[in-house]
Write a structure and sequence with these properties.
CATH superfamily: GHMP Kinase, N-terminal domain
Distance between the termini: 32 Å
Strand content: 25-35%
Order of helices and strands: HEEEEHEEHEEEEHEEH
Shape: elongated
Number of helices: 5
Number of strands: 12
CATH architecture: 2-Layer Sandwich
Largest sheet: 6 strands, mixed
Structural class: alpha+beta
CATH topology: Ribosomal Protein S5, domain 2
Mean pLDDT: 93
Low-confidence stretches: none
CATH class: Alpha Beta
Length: 271
């Protein structure tokens, strides 16, 4: 988020538009694009979902593996989140070893989910200290037209809620061709969501398109969830050199509960 990925002319035009409260697609600065979610897009995954948010298009598949628990949590199962950012999804992505974005994206999604306590990891234990379930969530952007973090978080949540355990045969081997009706141990009342706020000049925007995102000078991402009718801020990560003032952070804190409720209402149509 350096502002170097787009032309100075486009950057300056967007700066002036944002200062006037305008955007190319007619949205307000803090207005998010609508989204839709589709389930069962993969026959091989234990759970899968596809989200379309404007032109941003992401698929998340959930696989279930049996393995050993981590040494520091012998009575809990595991969660792993990965992403594959292919050039077909965006001209920003390159083939070869993963760049920073390919590492940052799954980490942010992982933190938003893990810190919300939506997953009861203790119920993933098969034999304590020896054998547990590992939930593997793979993120596959089909088209990145901005705000890939938020889209991936929503798709991951939907895929987790869609997932079921495969069968384990008498020898203790997983039979992936046979699925049970047992869902993952998720807290139904908890909804983890990531919100990323972007700054250009003195303006703060939500849900940028790719062109807007590349022009911005900073991004701050929050992992949010609900607990006992309260909004919980579970994680935070900033990227970019531009400074966010205390007044801007206060404004963001006022916006988050309203946006969470807005997204929660929309999600109820799909989850």
């Amino acid at each position: 988020m350096t502002g170097m990925e787009t032309s100075n002319l486009t950057k300056e035009k967007l700066r002036k538009m944002f200062a006037e409260g305008k955007r190319f697609d007619g949205r307000e600065l803090l207005e998010s694009r609508d989204f839709e979610i589709e389930y069962d897009v993969s026959n091989k995954a234990e759970g899968s979902a596809r989200i379309k948010m404007g032109k941003t298009d992401v698929i998340v598949g959930v696989k279930m593996q049996v393995g050993e628990p981590y040494p520091d949590s012998p009575d809990e199962g595991n969660l792993m989140v990965s992403s594959d950012l292919l050039p077909m999804a965006s001209p920003r992505y390159e083939s070869g070893p993963p760049k920073f974005d390919a590492i940052e994206l799954p980490r942010l999604v992982d933190r938003a989910i893990r810190a919300s306590d939506i997953i009861d990891f203790k119920k993933l234990v098969i034999e304590e200290g020896k054998k547990v379930w590992t939930i593997v969530a793979d993120i596959y952007p089909i088209n990145d037209d901005g705000n890939i973090i938020e889209a991936s978080s929503l798709a991951a949540l939907a895929a987790l809620k869609n997932a079921v355990f495969p069968e384990i045969d008498k020898e203790g081997k997983v039979d992936y061709d046979k699925k049970t009706k047992n869902k993952l141990p998720l807290a139904k009342e908890i909804i983890p969501i990531s919100f990323s706020f972007y700054k250009l000049g003195d303006s703060i925007i939500l849900d940028p398109t790719r062109e807007e995102e590349e022009a911005c000078d900073a991004r701050i991402t929050f992992g949010i969830s609900n607990w006992n009718k309260q909004i919980m801020l579970n994680s935070c990560q900033k990227k970019g050199k531009a400074i966010l003032t205390s007044e801007e952070i206060e404004k963001i804190m006022e916006i988050i509960p309203k946006k969470f409720e807005e997204f929660n209402k929309k999600l109820k149509k799909f989850l």
